[in-house]
Amino acid sequence: MQWDDYDAALFDLDGVLTPTAEVHMRAWERMFTDFLTSRGVSKPYTQADYFAHIDGKPRYEGVAAMLASRDIELPHGSPEDSSSEQTVCGLGNRKNELFTQVLRSEGITAYAGSLALLDHLESRGVAMAVVSSSKNAPEVLAAAGIADRFPVVVDGAVAAQRQLPGKPRPDTYTYAAEQLGVPSSRAVVLEDAISGVQAGAAGDFGLVVGVDRGAGAQALSDQGAEVVVQDLAELIGDR
Ligand SMILES: O=P(O)(O)OC[C@H]1O[C@@H](O)[C@H](O)[C@@H](O)[C@@H]1O
Description:
Number of helices: 10
Helix content: 40-55%
CATH class of the largest domain: Alpha Beta
Bound molecules: 6-O-phosphono-beta-D-glucopyranose
């Protein structure tokens, strides 16, 4: 990988820097399995549902896409809804309780290969930002001990506050490049989710890297990843 061609790296968080995509996946599975069972829906929730409908999207957009896949209509509700409410927001909030329980009890360690790439880019003076749909991103970064490596973090809360549309739209990535003062064409997007690769491909970024943590190398390149790796350490190069 020739980093000479780029001035910034824009990292997705869950599944790219930390193995938290797994934690999200497990929390979604528990919530949706209980919900679909309680409604007597015959087609159960599977991991394929996560990758197709939820992965990488903002919380309530993931819920809405998953419900649509089963032709279930619920009121949207509001983010203040309790986690027992049968609304899009209520279901999302239930999943979030499960996610934060696991994060707080088990903690999280960043991928070793990702830390190695961060060290490499830091030594080269490449600017770095985190671009995550998750409102939990600051807590995950702190738990992994890597918060101070990123001067710019565009998370779900920043996107909501600035009214930036979430992934698969490119706006959160574009905003992060702007905040770093780097033209998009000199920035690399690194993503493990189909919706995130689509976001990178929809902008005019210098390069979109897919990180295959389960979405599938072919699917990631079909959606616009120009390079696909299994581990970020593969991107450490001389130049
Ligand atoms: O509910 P949160 O933590 O705000 O984040 C929503 C999404 O954040 C993304 O980063 C994850 O890839 C998704 O799996 C998750 O559903």
